[in-house]
Amino acid sequence: MTTQNIRAAQREQTRRTLLHESRRLFASRGYADVGLSEIVRAAGVTKGALYHHFDSKTELFRAVLEQVQHEVGERVAATADAEDDPWRQLVAGCQAFLAASADPDVQQIMLIDGPAVLGWTEWRALDEAASARHLAEALTELMAAGVIVEQPVAPLTRLLSGAMNEAALWLASTADPGDLADTQAALSRLLDSLRRTSGST
């Protein structure tokens, strides 16, 4: 391995460490209560090393948020792909999103601090790229197959996405262990109401 390759590997390792430690701190305490000095101390690097990778604390948080969103998206996709029927894929994917979003660390970073730190417009754009687009594609496919009544996809996508995000936030505030199962059951009933029945137009 050349000196250049070694340095590149070291830089990448530093970046991974910064993401890991900042994610741990943001998840446990929230963005506002974590300072850069604490992050670099936990990562064992200098502030100069941090600024080599990220222009600011906000940029570091954005990278952490994108990492969390990507992981949630992969979990949802893997769960959906395990089903061979498009309708069951939609239901399984939505249920997997709700289950993943019920994780307190995910809630803190993705649903609580995400909109607060980046602003609603940017957060929505990231959420759109991470999950809403896939939901829209699934709904479009089901409408084309006649499983769901034909209707505008964009508002339906945002209604379902917003409902699931709000449910995940509510789950963060409740201590009842049965609430996740109850919420998933309610989500199943909501999704079932979209299915075409005989005589639907």
Automatic annotation (TrEMBL):
Keywords in alphabetical order: DNA-binding, Transcription, Transcription regulation
Domain HTH tetR-type positions: 12-72
Keyword Ribonucleoprotein: no
Xref: SUPFAM superfamilies: Homeodomain-like (SSF46689)
Residues within the DNA-binding region(s): 35-54
Lineage top rank: taxon: Bacteria
Pfam families: TetR_C_41, TetR_N
Gene3D superfamilies for the chain: Tetracycline Repressor, domain 2 (1.10.357.10)
InterPro entries xrefs: Homeodomain-like_sf, HTH_TetR, Rv0078-like_C
Protein name: TetR/AcrR family transcriptional regulator
Organism (species): Nonomuraea mangrovi
Lineage: Bacteria, Bacillati, Actinomycetota, Actinomycetes, Streptosporangiales
